[in-house]
Amino acid sequence: MVATTYLNIGTVYDVKGDYGNALECFNQALAIWRKVLGEAHPNVALSYLNMGVVYHEQGEYKQALAAHTKALELFKHAHGETSLDVGDCYGNIGNVYAGMGKYSEAIEFFNKSLVIMQAEVGENHPLVAKRYNNIGEAYYRQGQYDQAIEFHQKDLSILQKIYGKQHWDLAQAYQELGKCYYAKNDLGRALDYYQKPLLALVPNFLSGEVYSNPGIGQSISPIKLLSALELKAEAFAGLYSTQSRDLKDLEMCMSTYRLASDLIDKIRSSYLAEGSKLFLGSKASHISDSAIYAFAVTKEALEIAAIPKDSTFDSLVQTLAVSLRNVARKTDYLRSATLLHQTLVKPLAPYMAGKSRWVIIPDGELYQIPFEALLRTEVVPALETDYRSLPYLAKQHEISYH
């Protein structure tokens, strides 16, 4: 009973993101069960499994693999080679490999899990659909979009049989297919799939026309609806900036982002939770996995720029944040403040020429960037740096936030 209580408390800590306390509770449960039930008991395996999940969430992949491998060994000993618990362990190990970027190994373990799930619960079951989704996502991350589409279609087919036309898992399956077609630069088809989650999430919304949006008054999952609207807006942004240059597409992009912004306000008021503020203002940006879509809105025009986002962007933002809190990190500040200006501000210069006052409405990790502290030109680190003389963006523009 005490061990079960530790396990339940650890699960609560895990959900809250308090991973240190979660691990402490799971270790307490593990110690009790090993002493009372013996090393080979399934409850001991369950403790290792939960610890593996927390290690994975922390990005501690070596420890996660060790814990999940131990759980796998114990479940095999207790239940045999083909139990659902064993299949679950294979799936968890696959998730760890995927987190490590080792997608071939991830697919190998997802397939092992899939075979067990199919044998134990049959083809048309959410557990089987989940594994198809895992495999599709791994192929997507490898850039093998056709294979990804094949498995996401299998996932979708099962979910349609189980849930019919409306369910949040259906919405997710449609989104995954949309992401694959977006990556293939088939933006029309991507938009078709990004429209379908709206039908799956909003009762009485029946339009498959991509230029129509639902109201946000009712949704079976407001958070899932927010994700669907952001992906649809991103696709319209890409369509406008790279292919059509049709103002209708830009207007649809902006109206969809506005709808997403309204939904965030609704979620905030309903749950009293903080959310990412989307935008409509003088200058704003939206983050996607592969690009930053920056919108320059002036009295004269509205322009959009797709700024490529590489793997170094997040670390650059973090470097700037840390260097601003630690004066000893002068070199890091000078470098990151200059590179972020080149990445985020310089591409918008043609659209913002002559505009002295900027209102910046950031999204996602852009909230961490004090744009006024970015440097317009490169500064060579010196033993004594006069910070008053640096070429801050704030010296050229009056900057505020919304």
Task: Describe the model.
The protein is of the alpha/beta class and 402 residues long. Among the domains are: 193-278, no CATH class; 302-401, no CATH class. Helices cover 62% and strands 7% of the residues. It is built from 15 helices and five strands. The chain has helices at residues 2-16, 19-37, 42-57, 61-79, 84-99, 103-121, 126-141, 145-163, 168-183, 187-201, 222-244, 247-271, 313-325, 330-345, 349-352, and strands spanning 283-287, 291-297, 302-308, 357-361, 398-401. The chain has a five-stranded mixed β-sheet with strand order 3-2-1-4-5, with helices on one face.
Please give a handful of descriptors for the protein shown.
5 strands, globular, 15 helices, alpha/beta, about 400 residues
In N-to-C order, the SSE pattern is HHHHHHHHHHHHEEEHHHEE
By DSSP (H or I, 4+ residues per run), the number of helices equals 15
> What is the makeup of the main sheet?
5 strands, mixed
Distance between the termini: 51 Å
Q: Structural class of the helices, strands and pairings?
A: alpha/beta
Number of strands: 5
User: Uncertain segments of ≥5 residues (pLDDT<50)?
Assistant: 271-285
Report the helical percentage: 55-70%
Tell me what portion of residues adopts beta-strand conformation. 5-15%
Measured on Cα atoms, how large is the radius of gyration?
24 Å
Principal-axes shape call: globular
Oligomer: single chain
Q: Spatial order of the strands in the main sheet?
A: 3-2-1-4-5
Mean pLDDT score? 85
